């Protein structure tokens, strides 16, 4: 029988303070709610679009237009959209534009609601950043760089970003440590 010795690498005090200290929960909550509101409004605008080009009888029209615009940016010496991503657009996204349309609209709403409520904050921020990265890969700038950076910070700060939210109660119910608990901070700072 072999015994595995697990050594924890101590967390630097700076990152422990930024990403795990409940004293900064108010700052993380403001950041989380701002990003959540941006996602919620983006999704709401798509779902309630009166033309029904995102969700409804003409679902997929807006996504097809967006994706065809991205494909137009694949030429030249310095294309805005790389060849491998153009392949993804052409062979996977465009043929399934209706499915992608619903996924984007409802995904943005779900990300926004989860972030505002502080429910599975790290996971919601990860998927928000994933959407931002895809929009950037498709050659769209807009607010995507800022939201991608903020989503990355929220993923790093998930322990305290959901402290003033549902994560504080839901995460222990699913077998995860509550955000920014004393035990979680101690385990990361004192190797055994």
UniProtKB/TrEMBL annotation:
Transmembrane regions listed in the UniProt entry: 110-133, 145-166
Topology in the lipid bilayer: Multi-pass membrane protein
InterPro entries the UniProt entry points to: DoxX
Keywords: Membrane, Transmembrane, Transmembrane helix
Lineage top rank: taxon: Bacteria
Subcellular location(s) of the protein: Membrane
PANTHER family in alphabetical order: DOXX FAMILY PROTEIN (PTHR39157:SF1), INTEGRAL MEMBRANE PROTEIN-RELATED (PTHR39157)
Protein name (database record): DoxX family protein
Originating organism: Deinococcus hohokamensis
């Amino acid at each position: 029988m072999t015994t595995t010795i697990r050594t924890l690498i101590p967390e630097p005090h700076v990152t422990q303070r930024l990403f795990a200290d409940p004293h900064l929960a108010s700052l993380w909550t403001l950041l989380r709610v701002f990003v959540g509101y941006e996602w919620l409004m983006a999704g709401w605008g798509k779902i309630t679009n009166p033309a029904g080009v995102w969700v409804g009888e003409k679902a997929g029209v807006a996504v097809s237009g967006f994706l065809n615009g991205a494909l137009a940016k694949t030429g030249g010496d310095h294309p805005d959209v790389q060849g491998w991503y153009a392949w993804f657009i052409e062979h996977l996204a465009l043929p399934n534009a209706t499915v992608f349309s619903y996924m984007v609209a409802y995904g943005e709403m779900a990300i926004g609601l989860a972030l505002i409520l502080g429910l599975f904050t790290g996971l919601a921020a990860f998927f928000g950043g994933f959407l931002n990265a895809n929009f950037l890969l498709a050659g769209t700038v807009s607010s995507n760089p800022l939201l991608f950076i903020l989503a990355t910070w929220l993923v790093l700060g998930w322990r305290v970003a959901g402290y003033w939210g549902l994560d504080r109660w839901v995460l222990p119910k699913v077998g995860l440590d509550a955000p920014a608990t004393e035990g979680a901070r101690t385990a990361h700072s004192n190797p055994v």
